[in-house]
Amino acid sequence: MGFVQHLETGRLQQVAETHDLFIHVVARQGVYVTAVRPLVLVSGRVVDDAKGVREAFVLGQERTVGHDPRFGLVVLNEIAVRAVSSGINDPGTAINVIQTDVRVLSDWFARKAQTNPEPEHERVSIVAISPREILDDVFRPIARDGAGIVEVCMKLFEALKRYSWSLRRSSARRSAVSPGS
After folding, report:
1. Domain residue spans in the chain?
2. Average of per-residue pLDDT across 57-61
3. pTM score, two decimals?
4. What is the DSSP string of the chain?
């Protein structure tokens, strides 16, 4: 039981090749797993010596920023939430965090849109980070706690508009790439 801190896709690929499996990781870095929540879904006949699958995961009691990009954004946005608290009342810091969020997410979407990489491991796939998860991690806490500060709300609306634009642009570029290119 614990947070997925790291996973070794190379080890999963070896297990998949050895046992003629296809492995889909459903518990990527940052996900809290228990005995009833699977780490992976497997297609193929699983045998007892395929236990190398579990050994490809490092679990711990806390999330880490090293392999969990969503957690890095959560930590950054905790700064903004503290900044808009009544005890501190520093909307400028919250606005700076929102601008940093926009820059990080814009860069991320631009890189995703420009690349159409071949899978590194043909027998291993990982569930994607959804735009909804990013919205929840990044913008919801600031919206909740900064709702009473006009400057923060205006910057947040601008950020959401840019985020939406980046998603549409990224999606349009991916759909414009043909499977053979």
Report:
1. 2-60, 69-115+122-176
2. 95
3. 0.78
4. -EEEEEE-HHHHHHHHHHHT-EEEE-S-TT-EE-TTS-SEEEES---GGGTHHHHTEEEESS--SSS-HHHHHHHHHHHHHHHTSTTT--HHHHHHHHHHHHHHHHHHHHHHHH--PPPSSTTEEEPPPPHHHHHHHHHHHHHHHSTT-HHHHHHHHHHHHHHHHHHHHHHHHHHHS-TT-
